[in-house]
Amino acid sequence: MYEQQLKKYLNIPKNFKGVSDNSEQIYEKIIERNEAVLENVSKQKKELFEQLDAVIKHWQSWLQFEPLDEKKLTSWEHWDLHFRASKTFGQEIAKLPSAEERVGCFLIGLSRMRSDLESHNRSYWDQLVYSLKDSIAEDVVKLQNFIDPSTAALTKQPVSLEEIGESGFNYSSITEAHQEVTEAF
Question: Do the Cβ atoms of 86 and 80 come closer than 8 Å?
């Protein structure tokens, strides 16, 4: 498309009329003589844009983020894995050049991208911390819901036969719940 428009633009002088009879040929010769130069410019332009595409592809791999899926974080190993990955990613970001990258006549500034990557990594780390805190709070509530009734049932002194039977039932239900809590934690 670009080349077509350029050729159309450069063919405009062919329609110019000069003061002599041979003036039409003069403009055609100028265009024909410089056709090789235009082809060289087109070739260099194509190579430059291919280099720019290569730079884009290189940096796009850094920019493909996946959001944190808290549903997949079910054990301490998952959080540990994500924290380690975030730390490693941060170390890789620190190794990135913060200056500019030159591609032909273009200068590509990398400082903004680097700061965006650092910001994203910090945000990801914060999400991990908050999800871990929430998970811990949920686990504390579950443990508290087991401990409080169990403690109340075990500290109650039975006085009658009916209360002794009830305490035996409470003890068996506490041992069952204890096995479930032990498996969960």
Answer: no
- b/e per residue, 129-139, with b = 16+ CB within 10 A? eebbeebeeee
For 94-117, write each residue's pLDDT tens digit: 888 877 888 888 888 888 888 888
The pTM for the full model equals: 0.63
Half-sphere exposure of 62 (CA within 13 A, CB side): 20
| Arithmetic mean of pLDDT, 26-49 | 82
Contact yes or no for 98/112 (Cβ under 8 A)? no
Could you tell me which residues are beta bridge partners of residue 70?
none
Give the model confidence (pLDDT) of 133-143 as tens digits: 999 998 899 88
